[in-house]
Recover the amino acids of this structure.
């Protein structure tokens, strides 16, 4: 029987938990694709739904020669909107964090402040919010992401690649094993 209090747990129980979590973790690509499909229901007054916006952003990344990791991040940059529009960049970034580089994580985490150049002033906010990041090594990539891909991706007539094109990439990026059971720990369990 599994423990009922963590302070009474054993190494063997934690090894079992690790194995069970790894099994569930293997389903992450399917979960991400399901969440992306939920974006299709969200239009929120834009010219396209949020899935089309995500697909267009990722399509622009593909056509610009971005890495697979960055393409998947472009596809998932607004996935947090399934949960909350207000803090969607933080949600999306944290979902991506275990699977991507720090640079890609930071681009997604801050993309709203970078995008603010195009609309924050209309809402009484600081359109120069991105300037707080000017000394970050990923600043130029964040500018490219938001100015060339993200903010331009609300066009119902844009030649957009379908979700099926990106699914193998999602499988590879989110299919990475995050739980590593060492041989030594497994042997002592």
């Amino acid at each position: 029987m599994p423990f009922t209090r963590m302070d009474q747990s054993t190494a063997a129980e934690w090894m079992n938990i690790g194995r069970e979590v790894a099994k569930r973790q293997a389903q992450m690509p399917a979960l991400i694709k399901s969440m992306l499909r939920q974006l299709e229901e969200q239009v929120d007054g834009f010219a396209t739904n949020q899935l089309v916006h995500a697909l267009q952003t990722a399509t622009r990344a593909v056509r610009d020669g971005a890495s697979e990791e960055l393409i998947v991040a472009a596809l998932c940059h607004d996935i947090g909107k399934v949960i909350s529009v207000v803090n969607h960049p933080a949600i999306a970034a944290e979902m991506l964090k275990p699977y991507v580089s720090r640079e890609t994580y930071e681009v997604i985490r801050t993309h709203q402040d970078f995008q603010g150049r195009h609309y924050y002033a209309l809402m009484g906010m600081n359109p120069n919010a991105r300037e707080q990041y000017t000394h970050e090594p990923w600043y130029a990539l964040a500018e490219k992401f938001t100015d060339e891909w993200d903010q331009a991706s609300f066009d119902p007539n844009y030649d957009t690649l379908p979700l099926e094109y990106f699914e193998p990439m999602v499988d590879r990026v989110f299919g990475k094993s995050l739980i590593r059971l060492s041989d030594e720990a497994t042997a002592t369990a």
Q: What stands out?
A: Residues 65 and 119 are 27 Å apart (CA to CA). DSSP finds nine helices and no strands in the chain. Residues 11-25 form the longest helix (15 residues). Confidence is low (pLDDT under 50) at residues 180-189.
